[in-house]
């Protein structure tokens, strides 16, 4: 095994190569190797300057995730960077791939930085609930100014090399694919006096712009929605202007330690690891994915066209089938518009859009166009008979070994698969709208779905840049089954006296981007209405029913698309206002049932909403619909707006304590023993003093 940091000298320039695959993470061995190499450079008479670069495909991509949650071992990164900066010989950072977090902080501690044109830099620590803790908040403002530092550090966004050059983060951008050559050339210029290096810690940051900091505090408080690390990061950046460098470094470290001890840091770290662990499924270990070189989509409405664009953006040719030429033209129009939006947002070049439309995207009105397609995704109306008819037709046309996927939000994939002679090739893909944007893909595994088909679903999700979660078959799978349950809890509170507008406001304050009633208006109230009617025949007679949403739908008020739902919408508006007529409907429903309304505090609203979510999630895990609690967390984080800094409902339950959650459910069961009956798994774990996290660790 090679040393993670190697030292050599080329024509009077020391080459310090970080070689810790796959991403040259800053492990303890790398930190120690860097410290040793810089000390060696200082005393090496054969070297006039040094270059730090990353072997392989990237510079230093950040901290070593294997050390997360463990005590940090010496040498500490701030001390290593301080040694680099203090070196009497100029040190150049040669950047390629990504220089993120501690990797960028190492580069900022060097006396100059050159980057390949393809490189990206960033300080994404706020996405993990912390802030740059090795000088990033003190050096970046001195190099790039307060505005750039506030932008990059509070957002965690990555910056391309060209923008980094404009901001002053790097000193030069070089075309080509050889970072070492670029670094050596710049190091020689420094050694020969043809270019000047700087110690960033010695740069005068200038006077503090009080208005700028006040503006960023106001903007960040709004955009962070309860997350504390971006706000604390502003305090750290401000220290670069209020304090001498060494005192600012001490203040940064103090704030960093506070965030490391926070629940939010724990929640964000959990989310980080859960999104990586969710791909560990038994089928991926048992089988290899099938090859997918072409995609077919049946149905060109909003969902089908979005799925087609997601595949096209991933480089897959797509054939979209609609029932007639008029529908085909509508679908082509939707796809073209979505691609144009991608160009407008800078996600796609005009040349690539034109290539997709002329070469990669085709349409047809006959299923025979899908005869040689590797994977077909049906995205027609959410009706069992319609979908079964599609699959019967596909079964007679698709080639042997083709995967047949149904995009369904609720329907029984086993029943759909039974309409074919090849149930082993049938799988459910629950895309979320808009399908080309939303990150979550529930991969629904039917009873007879082959292991390699499941593995293919996860491989396709990765290619589409989506987070795949394995789900079993039940009404609503993981996400919509949970949604149906916690939405009932919200409806019960409305019928008992809470306002839908108060509930939405309380849950936005909790961290959701929207409350459940605003979300319903956005999705369309008619969709849930159809689901309620579909389930009516099988509804348990013990279940409490609330008719408020039905009364709203009976008036033809389906949310944003009709201008009315729970809220009133001005033409073209995305944000609604409370509707007195809806409040009158609610009052009439209460009166008809003899319910005397009572008040709810925001805390009660959140407690009931979360208790319903956690309890149903425990049932989903116990039934095997979700493999592990972390699968539930990822579903809610990636698809349902659950505040990421809380880690997901199962992580949140563990933080509250399962005994606390169980006590709340038992208290509520006095009101409604059927709805609030505690899940057996939750009872067992609470009685044993265990956590949901303990189930994530099982094989």
UniProtKB/TrEMBL annotation:
InterPro entries: 3-OHacyl-CoA_DH_NAD-bd, 3HC_DH_C, 6-PGluconate_DH-like_C_sf, ClpP/crotonase-like_dom_sf, Enoyl-CoA_hyd/isom_CS, Enoyl-CoA_hydra/iso, NAD(P)-bd_dom_sf. It comes from the Bacteria. Residues 476-569, 605-690 form the 3-hydroxyacyl-CoA dehydrogenase C-terminal domain. It holds the Pfam family 3HCDH_N. Pathway: Lipid metabolism; fatty acid beta-oxidation. Residues 295-471 form the 3-hydroxyacyl-CoA dehydrogenase NAD binding domain. Keywords: Fatty acid metabolism, Isomerase, Lipid degradation, Lipid metabolism, Lyase, Multifunctional enzyme, NAD, Oxidoreductase, Peroxisome. GO terms for biological process: fatty acid beta-oxidation. It catalyses: a (3S)-3-hydroxyacyl-CoA + NAD(+) = a 3-oxoacyl-CoA + NADH + H(+). GO terms for molecular function: (3S)-3-hydroxyacyl-CoA dehydrogenase (NAD+) activity; enoyl-CoA hydratase activity; isomerase activity; NAD+ binding. Coiled coil: none annotated. Its main location: other. Gene3D superfamilies: 1.10.1040.50, 2-enoyl-CoA Hydratase, Chain A, domain 1, NAD(P)-binding Rossmann-like Domain. It is found in: Peroxisome. In the N-terminal section; belongs to the enoyl-CoA hydratase/isomerase family. This is 3-hydroxyacyl-CoA dehydrogenase. It comes from Stappia indica.
